From TrEMBL:
The keyword Secreted does not apply. It is a multi-pass membrane protein. This is CynX/NimT family MFS transporter. Its main location: membrane.
Amino acid sequence: MQKRYRWLLLGIISLGTSLRMPLTAIPPILDNIQKSFQLPASLLGSLTTIPLLCFAVLSPFVPRIASILGNEVTILIALLVLTLGNFTRVFSTNLLLIGTLFIGIAIAFTNVLVPAIITDHFPDRIGPITSLYTFSMTLFSAIGAGASAPLAVKFGWQGVLQSLAIFTLLIAVAWLPNLRLNHRLLPPAITAGKASVWRTPGAWWMTLTMGIQSLLFYTILTWLPKIMISRGLPQTTAGLMLGLFQVAALPAAYLVPRYTARVDRQQRLLWLIGFLFICGLAGLLIPSHAIWYLTLICIFLGVASTSMFGLCMTLFSLKATSAAETAAISGMAQAMGYLLAAVGPVSFGLVYGWLHSWTLLLLALILLTVVMIVAGLVVEGKKTIFD
C-alpha cells in the first residue's frame, strides 16, 4: 500500500471510532444531564432523535455538496463541526440542543461519504477496509455506552463529553494529510448516462433493506433493557445485557464485510442473519428470566444487527460502479433508513403505552425482518443497483 493511502486507511479507521460514541455515551448519563439542566423527560428523547433526523434529512444532499468541496475536504469540515458540537453541548440547555444538532449534521455527512471514499481509493479492498471501519465503529460504540457512566462519576458528565471533543479534534488533525487526495464526485446520472438514483428500482430495494435494518437496530437498542426488566431482571443486569448486545457483535463487524466482498453471492449470509433475528426476537416472547437464556438472545440480536449493518455498508460499494454511485445510493438509503430509525423507537413506545404488552410489537419486528431479508435478496441478485 502506498504511504499516502496508509494515512487514508488510518483516517477511515479513526472516523469509525468517532461516529457512534457521541451518541451511545449519552443514554447512561441522561440522569446526570437532566439534573444539571433541570430538563423535562420529553426533552431527553430529543438527544437521540435529533441526530437521527439529521441523518434522514441531510443524507440525500451530501453527494451534491461533496461534488463541490470534494470528499476529503467535506470530511474534515464534518470533523470540525463534530468537535464543536461535542465541546459546546455541556454549557446550557440551548447549547445542548445546538451541539446535538451539530453532531447529527457531522455524522450524517461522514456516514454517506466513507463508503464512497473506500470505493474511490480502495476498489480492490472494499471488504477488508469496510471491515476495519465497521469494527472500529462497533468497538467504540460499546466503549461509549459502557464507560461514560463510570467516568462521569469521577470526572463529571461534562468532562466526559468534552473529552470526546479533544478526541475528534485529534482525528481531524490526523485527517489533514488526506486533503491531497481530495476527490470531487460527479453525479452518476452525468458520468454514466443513468437515471437518478431516486428513480431506480434497485435503489429503493436497497433503501428498504437499510431502512428496516436501522429501525430494528435502534428499536432493539432503545427497548431491550425495558423488555429484560419486564422479564424480571434487575436494572443493572439489564444494562449489562445491553452492553453484551453490542460487544457480542464485534466479530461480525470485522468478518461480515470481508466475507461479503469475497463471495459472489450473499444469499446464505442473508438467510443466516434472518434466522438469528427471528430466533432472538421470538425468544423474547418467552417470559424466561434465566441469565443464560437472555444472554443467548442478546448475542443472537447483536450479531444479527451488526452483520446486517456491515452487509449494507459493503453492498453500497459492491453494487455500484463508481464512488459517485456509491455516495448517491448511500445517501438515499441512509436518508430513508434513519427516518425509519427515528420513528421506530418512538412509535413502538407509544404502542407499548397503549397495550402494556411486548407481544404484538415483537411479532411486528419479526414480520419486518422477513421483509428486510426479501428486499436484501432482491438487491443481492442484481449486478449493480442501476441494473
